[in-house]
Amino acid sequence: MVLEHALIDIRPGTGEAFEAALAEARQVIAASPGFASLRLHRGVETEDRYLLLVEWETLDDHLVGFRESPAFAAWRSLIGPYFASPPEVVHYALPPATAQAGPQARS
Length: 107
What we know:
Layout: E1 2-9, H1 15-30, E2 35-42, E3 49-56, H2 59-66, H3 70-79, E4 88-93, H4 96-101
Antiparallel strand pairs: 1-3, 1-4, 2-3
């Protein structure tokens, strides 16, 4: 499992519209092979900053299967107009010892 971590800064005052657009865009990304889950968190101190967490089965599911597909263009056309700058995207995976140890090891 790979976790995509995206910091998204949106144009000031567009939070409600961005969140509505993301609800629609969620249907697009959820249909992509390898997609597992999506969570969106809004900044507490900075309300125009969001943290988007997307779980993928593999890194290629995100970078090749999704980003190189027509679905990515549809996704971006829905949420991209709200971006104040390009999102900062980083991928993470559980270390092998943590992944094998089960849920208790993640605490």
